[in-house]
Amino acid sequence: MLNLSAYSLAILLHLAAAMVLVGGSVFSLHVRRAVMEASTAGALRAWLGFVRRSSSANPVAALVLLGTGIYLGSRGWWAYPWFYVALAAWLANALLAGQVLKPAGMAMGSALAGVADDAPVEGLVDALRRSPGWRVAGAVMLASDMAMLFLMVQKPPLIESLAVVLGAMAIGGGVTLARARRSRLDRMPARGRPQYNAARDDDYGTAGV
Ligand code: HEM
Description:
Elements: H1 6-37, H2 41-54, H3 58-73, H4 81-112, H5 123-130, H6 132-154, H7 158-187
Helix pairs in contact: 1-2, 1-3, 1-6, 2-4, 3-4, 4-5, 4-6, 4-7, 6-7
The site of protoporphyrin IX containing FE has 21 residues, from helix 1, helix 3, helix 4 and helix 6.
């Protein structure tokens, strides 16, 4: 009954690993919001702990995805450019996870050390969670995951593959960065906000950004 070829088994493992990573990426949208909205140090600490536990399988899943992807590729897909675009996107995601997301979580965790659970989230901890870098990295990773799903199913030529992955990353990252800046402006006291000045209408677009 279980007459699985090596290729089918590799596809199964590949999809299972992709589900772990893509599922985590989608869910992280809600977790990012919860981190931003946590009003006490205790609540923020609990969410950071949740992020740590829920992403603990990600490095293994990423390696299984890569290993099975390379194996599947060895059966003929190495000749196609979408394969190398997927490899590059995998590498970009691994770098963002290791160089941006993980250090950001650890920095927030260290800044919270010794802070009472019922203390408000302020000062350095608040500045760290509001810094747009980790949110933009998370959004870029989710966009790249979705673009890779498209590559796998559609297997487009080089230019289309690059356009889909880079376009998705730029849109995901750009929208998140714009929203982070918008919320920073909303939190500024009115006198600190850039004021509209009709006399300098032409350069208003860059003011305070
Ligand atoms: C989040 C990332 C990824 C997702 C969601 C994903 C998803 C998938 C899916 C759904 C398939 C089945 C496609 C089909 O049967 O038509 C597949 C196949 C495949 N994937 Fe991935 N994949 C990802 C990353 C990668 C990476 C990084 C590589 C390269 C190292 C790779 C290489 C392959 C290869 C060679 C196949 C076989 C294509 C076929 O037999 O049709 N994948 N992937």
